[in-house]
From TrEMBL:
Alphabetized InterPro entries for the sequence: DRC1/2_N, DRC1/DRC2, DRC1_C
Residue numbers spanned by region Disordered: 1-20
Name of encoding gene: CCDC65
Locations listed in the record: Cytoplasm, Cytoskeleton, Flagellum axoneme; Cytoplasm, Cytoskeleton, Flagellum basal body
GO biological processes: axonemal dynein complex assembly; cilium-dependent cell motility; regulation of cilium movement
Keyword Cytoplasm listed: yes
Organism of derivation: Salmo trutta (Brown trout)
One Pfam family from the record: NYD-SP28_assoc
Residues covered by the Dynein regulatory complex protein 1 C-terminal domain: 405-445
Family: Belongs to the DRC2 family.
Residues in coiled coil: 263-322
The protein's name in its UniProt record: Dynein regulatory complex protein 1
Its biological purpose: Component of the nexin-dynein regulatory complex (N-DRC), a key regulator of ciliary/flagellar motility which maintains the alignment and integrity of the distal axoneme and regulates microtubule sliding in motile axonemes. Plays a critical role in the assembly of N-DRC and also stabilizes the assembly of multiple inner dynein arms and radial spokes. Coassembles with DRC1 to form a central scaffold needed for assembly of the N-DRC and its attachment to the outer doublet microtubules.
UniProt entry tagged with the keyword Plastid: no
């Protein structure tokens, strides 16, 4: 109701307004409605945003609660699984520990037995060594006696030969002294003459060298002056060209000096640090030596036990490997043998089935006399028996003895093979005869059938003679003029 009144009041107001006032009023009203709609949209958007934030906070809180509860459930299940795993692992550990204890006990027993065996072997070895020492001492005594006797003989021979050599040496020394004196006199004379010749030749050469030296000096002085001028010019050009490099070199040398000083200071610091490190290292070495001395005994005992355990483990692994190899070879060979036997069994079953099938197809004569008669004479058969009684000398003949049982089988096989060849030849002959009979039959059928195509060709069975114009033959005479050849006569002539 108020809206209707408001509409009526607005209409009354618009009735008293001009056109411009009405337009302005309508614009203000539209702006007010737009502002109202925008305010409503803002309020609705803010309400939805607040609701969304509230829902997000609630979902985060619920997710945190679910995570906490799920973690508690997972912890309980994991704790139960870990307890069961711990129980299983403890049982496994106890089982392994018992097994290791039993292995250690066995190893201790084996070790004691090995020690007893080694002690027994050592006693027997010492006894053998004592016997060998006694034998060696006796042998050394005999050898020493032989050596002494040989030494006496050699010393006597040596003394006699020494006296002879000394006397011969004295004689030779006297002869050599005489020869040396004569040679010295001769060489002194030769030396004097050679010295005189040398002095004269030396003076000539010296004078010649002095003259050549003066000439070369004059020539070389001019060459040296030219070279000196060239050197001075090259030096000036080099100094001008390398002045900048010289300056850079001076700066680098000063920098190098500073670096050398820094290196010296650092080296002093390093030396001090090395001294402290060496002192600490010496203390560490002393402590390590003390600890190593204590641990060396334990390590030696552990190494002995480890070595014995390793040796026993190696023996056990070798034995297992050998048994595994034997088992593998046995399995492979047994499988191969089983396959071969199965193949032989299948082949035998197939042979038996074929024999039964062939037995059904045999004739009465083949059942009574399955083997063909030999084509050999009596003498050849006796000689064959004699050869069979002799032991074979060749490998092939020895191998054939293993297949004597199959001789009857091969006889029947050869008989069947011969019969098959005979039947094939007979079949070929019958096939050829059948072809010839077919040709004759075709010729006969062509002769008895009368058609234009057959009459155009030569007909072997039917020959017609033309009648004469003067005499008209009768029907009987016309029948007698036809010549007919029987097919049986043709077959006899062709075959």
């Amino acid at each position: 109701m108020p809206k209707k009144g408001a509409k009526k009041g607005g209409a009354g107001k618009q009735a008293g307004m001009t056109e411009e006032e009405r337009l302005l009023y309508m614009q203000q009203r539209a702006q007010a409605e737009d502002e109202m709609a925008k305010r409503k949209e803002d309020m609705l958007t803010q309400f939805l945003k607040d609701k969304l934030q509230k829902e997000e906070r609630n979902s985060a809180v619920n997710l945190h609660k679910l995570t906490q509860q799920w973690r508690a459930v997972l912890r309980q299940t994991r704790a139960a699984e870990l307890r069961s795993d711990i129980a299983v692992l403890s049982q496994t550990f106890e089982r392994v520990l018992d097994r290791k204890d039993s292995v250690i006990k066995c190893l201790v027993c084996d070790l004691s037995e090995a020690e007893q065996q080694s002690a027994q072997a050592l006693r027997s070895h010492l006894e053998c060594v004592d016997c060998l020492l006694a034998l060696q001492k006796g042998r050394l005594a005999s050898l020493e006696q032989q050596w002494n006797s040989g030494l006496e003989g050699l010393s006597y021979e040596f003394n006699s030969e020494r006296e002879q050599i000394l006397s011969q040496h004295q004689q030779e020394c006297a002869y050599l002294e005489d020869v040396t004196f004569a040679m010295e006199q001769f060489y002194m004379e030769v030396d004097g003459e050679a010295r005189q010749d040398y002095q004269s030749t030396r003076d000539d050469i010296k004078n010649r060298n002095i003259e050549e030296k003066h000439a070369l000096r004059i020539q070389l002085e001019g060459t040296v002056e030219g070279l000196w001028r060239q050197f001075q010019h090259a030096l000036r050009s080099y100094n001008e060209a390398t002045e900048d490099r010289h300056i850079a070199f001076e700066s680098l040398r000063t920098r190098d000096q500073r670096s050398a000083q820094e290196i010296d200071t650092q080296m002093r610091r390093l030396q001090k640090m090395q001294d402290s490190i060496s002192a600490l290292r010496s203390r560490l070495n002393s402590s390590q030596k003390e600890s190593e001395g204590a641990a060396r005994g334990l390590r030696a005992a552990r190494e002995e036990v480890t070595l014995q355990a390793r040796q026993l483990k190696a023996q056990l692994s070798r034995a297992r490997a050998a048994e595994r190899d034997q088992l593998t070879n046995l399995t492979v060979h047994s499988n191969a043998a089983a396959k071969n036997l199965q193949g032989i069994i299948t082949k035998g079953e197939r042979l038996l089935r074929l024999a039964e099938m062939c037995r059904k197809l045999e004739t009465e004569h083949e059942k009574v006399l399955p083997f063909y008669t030999s084509s050999l004479t009596a003498e050849e058969e006796s000689q064959e028996r004699a050869n069979a009684m002799e032991p074979p000398s060749e490998e092939l003949a020895q191998a054939m003895l293993d297949y004597l049982v199959l001789e009857r089988f091969w006889q029947r096989y050869n008989k069947v093979l011969l019969e098959r060849l005979c039947l094939e030849r007979e079949r070929g002959a019958l096939t050829q005869e059948n072809q010839q009979l077919r040709i004759v039959l075709r010729q006969y059928l062509d002769g008895i059938s009368v058609s234009d195509e057959i009459l155009r060709h030569r007909n072997p069975l039917l020959m017609v003679s033309r009648p004469t114009l003067a005499v008209q033959p009768t029907a009987d005479a016309q029948r007698k003029r036809h010549t007919v050849i029987e097919a049986a006569h043709v077959v006899q002539r062709t075959l």
